[in-house]
Write a structure and sequence with these properties.
This protein is mostly helical. It is built from three helices and no strands. It is globular and about 45 Å long. The mean pLDDT is 88.
C-alpha cells in the first residue's frame, strides 16, 4: 500500500474532524474512515485523535509539479 500524501492526510483529517463535529460515536467514525480510505482501524483512530485536537479543518494543498 502506498503512503498517503500530505494532501491525502489533510483530506482524511478533515473528514475525521467533520465526523467528530457531528457527534458520531468514535467506533462508528473509525469504521467509516477505515472503509472510505482503506485504513486499518488503528490508523483511523489515530486520525480521529489528531482531528480532535484541531480547532478548524486543515487546508488541503495539492502537490506542485516542477516545470
Amino acid at each position: 500500500m502506498p503512503r498517503s500524501t500530505k494532501a491525502d492526510k489533510a483530506r482524511q483529517l478533515n473528514v475525521a474532524h467533520r465526523l467528530l463535529q457531528r457527534n458520531v460515536a468514535l467506533p462508528e467514525a473509525a469504521q467509516r474512515l477505515a472503509r472510505r480510505y482503506g485504513l486499518s482501524l488503528r490508523q483511523a483512530y489515530r486520525y480521529l485523535e489528531e482531528a480532535a485536537e484541531l480547532d478548524a479543518p486543515v487546508e488541503v494543498t495539492e502537490a506542485t509539479v516542477p516545470v
